[in-house]
From TrEMBL:
<feature type="transmembrane region" description="Helical">
    <location>
        <begin position="65"/>
        <end position="86"/>
    </location>
</feature>
<dbReference type="Pfam" id="PF26509">
    <property type="entry name" value="DUF8171"/>
</dbReference>
<keyword id="KW-0812">Transmembrane</keyword>
<protein>
    <recommendedName>
        <fullName>DUF8171 domain-containing protein</fullName>
    </recommendedName>
</protein>
<feature type="transmembrane region" description="Helical">
    <location>
        <begin position="230"/>
        <end position="254"/>
    </location>
</feature>
<feature type="transmembrane region" description="Helical">
    <location>
        <begin position="33"/>
        <end position="53"/>
    </location>
</feature>
<feature type="transmembrane region" description="Helical">
    <location>
        <begin position="286"/>
        <end position="309"/>
    </location>
</feature>
<feature type="transmembrane region" description="Helical">
    <location>
        <begin position="185"/>
        <end position="209"/>
    </location>
</feature>
<keyword id="KW-0472">Membrane</keyword>
<keyword id="KW-1133">Transmembrane helix</keyword>
<feature type="domain" description="DUF8171">
    <location>
        <begin position="34"/>
        <end position="312"/>
    </location>
</feature>
<feature type="transmembrane region" description="Helical">
    <location>
        <begin position="98"/>
        <end position="123"/>
    </location>
</feature>
<dbReference type="InterPro" id="IPR058484">
    <property type="entry name" value="DUF8171"/>
</dbReference>
Length: 327
């Protein structure tokens, strides 16, 4: 695949002054907002669509699409992984539910943290979005981190005795629960990670490389200067990631314990939760309608901010040219 002048990292010095080289420390507020809104809109709407897809059972295995993993992989491979991860996590934990008129409350933090860590790691693993192998690794890393942490949390619930139903369904032993979670993980890696992750991302990312970044005033990712896994305040990312997964595990176990002891009405993990029951009131088609509305509104916000950024960049380039002529 040949690169256009705007996608060739070697031409970085010749770029207009209004462009910003891919660097998470030098993103403007408008660029962060565009990445955030685009990520949470696309993934939030896609999550609604994924939930409406049918699932199939083959013996003890359930074949289903957990989510369209290629969306966070492609976005995190092309744009700033940190802001993409934040947008994707918000889209899954908040936007998708709010569009359907419901919200799980504080307990949504569990899924938020798992998906945030997985998306951020996946984005930083891609040095060159045109490399198919890197995109496959990123997709498997995203789904692996998300689903492995979920499996560990589910096993922990059984181990501490707050999820006896899962223990009975698996055959009454911890080993059976581990085996069941392992099979589910394998299916998730195959279906969500490979089919709806790596394959789709490998086709889409190289074709979008160098095309959506200029709309946000960004240079395409430079393989010689890829994003790095860094934590806040100079901390190691892996310590922060482990802490995030531990908090997610705590929320998962706490939520199951509150259900086990019958504290659903005053549970901590359901603080802020609500259910408008839109599907019961307006029928199943409400999901498609809300998904379409959310997509249109989200893209409209991104395009509006992009227009403002382009106008400011053109004004800055024009002012620089006038100053140069005045000299």
């Amino acid at each position: 695949m040949t690169s256009s002048p705007t996608t060739d990292p070697s031409t970085r010095a010749a770029a207009p002054s209004g462009f910003r080289r891919y660097d998470p420390d030098h993103l403007s507020s408008a660029q962060k907002l565009m990445i955030l809104v685009l990520s949470m809109t696309l993934f939030g709407v896609a999550d609604i669509v994924a939930d409406m897809l049918p699932s199939f059972s083959v013996g003890p295995l359930e074949l289903e699409v957990a989510y369209f993993a290629f969306i966070p992989v492609v976005l995190a491979a092309l744009l700033n992984p940190l802001w993409v991860a934040l947008g994707v996590a918000i889209g899954e934990a908040v936007i998708a539910d709010l569009l359907l008129g419901s919200f799980g409350g504080f307990g949504e933090l569990e899924g938020f943290l798992q998906l945030f860590v997985g998306t951020y790691v996946a984005g930083c693993l891609v040095k060159d979005p045109r490399k198919v192998s890197q995109l496959f690794v990123a997709a498997l890393a995203l789904v692996g981190i998300d689903k492995i942490s979920s499996a560990v949390i589910d096993v922990a619930k059984v181990a501490v005795g707050v999820d006896p139903e899962a223990l009975d369904d698996a055959g009454g032993t911890i080993a059976a629960v581990v085996l069941s979670e392992g099979l589910e993980l394998l299916m998730a890696l195959l279906i969500t990670g490979v089919v709806f992750g790596g394959l789709a991302a490998a086709w889409l990312a190289p074709r979008l490389y160098g095309k959506i970044e200029p709309l946000m005033g960004l240079r395409p990712r430079d393989p010689q200067h890829p994003p790095r896994l860094t934590g806040p305040w100079g901390l190691s990312f892996w310590w922060v990631a482990v802490l995030g997964i531990l908090v997610a595990a705590l929320m998962g176990v706490l939520s199951q314990w509150e259900e086990f002891v019958g504290r659903e009405d005053d549970a901590v993990t359901t603080v802020g939760s609500f259910d408008a029951e839109l599907a019961d009131t307006y029928g199943a088609d409400v999901a498609w309608i809300t998904a379409l509305v959310g997509l249109v509104v989200g893209l409209a916000v991104v395009l509006a901010v992009a227009a403002v950024v382009r106008r400011r960049r053109a004004r800055a380039v024009g002012s620089a040219a006038e100053n140069e002529q005045a000299r």
